[in-house]
Structure prediction request, 457 residues.
Amino acid sequence: MDRLELFATPAAGRLPVLNETGIQTVINGPIPVSADGEPIMGLAPGLDNFYVACGFTAGIAASGGAGLAMSNMILHGDAGMDLWPFDVRRFGALHAQPRYLEDRAIEAYGSYYKIHWPAEETQAGRGLRRSPVHEHVAKAGAVFGSRAGWERPNWFAPNGIGPRDVPSFESKPNWFSHVAEEHRAIRERAALIDQTSFSKFEISGKGAEAAMQRIAANELGGPPGKAIYTQLCNEKGGIEADVTLLHVDEDRFMLVTGAAFGLRDSGWVARHLPEGVAIRDVTNAFGVLNICGPRSREILQSVSDGDLSNAAFPFLTARRTGVGHAEVLAVRIGYVGELGYELYVPQEMRRMFTRRCGGRGNRSESQMPAIAPSTRAGSRRAIFTGPPRFRQTQILMKLGLASAWPWKRASSSAAKRLPQSRPRVFPANFVLSRSMDLRRSMAARPSCTRAKLPDMH
Ligand SMILES: Cc1cc2nc3c(=O)[nH]c(=O)nc-3n(C[C@H](O)[C@H](O)[C@H](O)COP(=O)(O)OP(=O)(O)OC[C@H]3O[C@@H](n4cnc5c(N)ncnc54)[C@H](O)[C@@H]3O)c2cc1C
Prediction:
């Protein structure tokens, strides 16, 4: 009652009628908070007919929109609006670990009514999953964000700049110009992108190609060795997933998708696989580096015995090739609109891989053509950056592919980074805001168009 008095007394001052009615019953009950503070809705992964609608921290005021969405899901298999921020499949087993969940929920509750900044990151439960190059990028000044438990560099703070986000609604955030420098390096020189966090699945068994072709919009036919960028569609032609399929062997594909989409996309595939075709998560089996930029071929060729020419290794092909002492799966693809190669390196080889490639780069530093002079005179460096479409910008380091070279940081200039918006609310009108979020979601269905990938020679 003492705690309630804090609110009840001023309320009675504003609404004198409350003095007459009095307080009949006091209910002090728990309010549910999910790992990110948002509701959890949808068909439970792995189950056929079990729907979830809980974690409504904002309150029962969301029940109208939530009820509509849930009935749409149950009756029609689709919410009828883009509800990804609330989708049950954004959480996997790692989010269900009680201590992790507790830490995240406490943070989510504590920050629920604070001002939320564009592209802000959560701080609780961090450091759960780390890429093989994590320590390298940390030393290079990486300012990390978190996706699906993975630590991923969002940007790199140059010397003299504090490695932390300084957000802003009115002006540009502090990382703006540093990210611009990463973009410039990719367009003009070369870069390594650490894509280890991407979700990866192996789909194998007799009939794998036919099963995938049934849900894939792009053409999968032809001999193994193809990389196919495709959407996976539902029976209405709507897009369920946006993935890369690597046809690595007869009746064996690798599916690559965003770090946070693994459960969603693999679940969609699993529902459509016939007897004898299996899907298995191989995310943690590979470290993935994407070397990209107009000079990436020259650089990779200097540490590879394979023929990387356009004729021998054309766009959208995949093959095994030697890089350093390691045999890796190399894929001629990328997400930055430039020449590039993704390298899938078995986890147990990644130390040797980086050491070997780093050593090679070190010895041939004077011949490393890919590293154009940066804005700091005399220093030559490449930039690791995340695929812009995933809003993950990453790093800078001299190109030796890692440890043998000293890490350097880039200097600044201007460019744009896309902020990720997340529906958030403010204290005074939280109930209203939440209902409006649902209404806005209904109005703003996602576009289904996507530009064709350019073939960069
Ligand atoms: C005092 C109070 C006043 C509020 N006033 C408002 C208001 O004015 N307006 C507003 O919009 N919102 C209000 N809210 C918030 C609103 O009630 C909650 O946000 C809303 O009920 C949350 O709905 P939910 O279904 O997500 O969770 P809940 O309603 O909490 O439902 C969760 C259910 O799961 C069950 N459960 C828990 N653990 C397990 C388990 N292990 N196994 C099986 N079942 C389990 C619980 O028994 C419960 O039935 C108020 C909340 C409180 C406590």
